[in-house]
Amino acid sequence: MISLSIGHGFDVHGFADERDLILGGVKIPHDRGLSGHSDADVLVHAIMDALLGAAGLPDIGQQFPPTDEAYKDADSCQLLGKVLQLIRDSGVKSINNIDAIIMAEQPTLNPYVPAMREKIAGVLEIEQSRISIKATTTEGLGFVGRGDGIAASAICLVGKDG
Hints:
The chain has helices spanning 42-55, 60-63, 76-89, 113-124, 142-145; strands at 2-16, 21-23, 26-28, 33-34, 92-103, 131-136, 149-161. The chain is α+β, with helices and mostly antiparallel strands. It has one domain (2-161): CATH 3.30.1330.50. It has a 5-stranded mixed sheet with strand order 4-1-7-5-6. It has a two-stranded antiparallel ribbon with strand order 2-3.
C-alpha cells in the first residue's frame, strides 16, 4: 500500500561578494551571490529538506555537513540527485508535487523560474508540471527586505511504501 507524506523545508543565506548567484540550479545575473559552504542555492536546499522530511530522513545539514570539505562549493543540484537516491532507498515511490517560494527583494526572479523548474524536474526525474516555484518580496521588511540575503520555503507531497 502506498501512503502519502508531506515534507516542509526552509533555507536562508546572506549575500556575499565575489560569488555567483545560483537559484534552482540556474545562474542568475546579479552583483552578489549567496554565502554558504556549498553553492548556497537556497531554493534547492529548501526542496531537499522538504523531500528528506517527507521521507522521515535527517536534514541536509546532517546528510551533507558544512564541516565536510567534500561539500565545499558543491553544486546543490548534484546534492539534490543524492537526496533523490536517499528518499528512494527509504521507500519513496513518487514525488507527487513540490511547491516552493523564493523571498528576495533583488534581483527580479520571475524570468528565471521556467529554467529553475526545468532544471529541478530534470534532476528529480519528474514532470515540470509537478513543480511550482514562485518569487516574492517581503515588502522591505526583515532580513530579506533589507537586501541582506534570500530565503526559500518548499513543501512536497510524496508517495511511499505504507
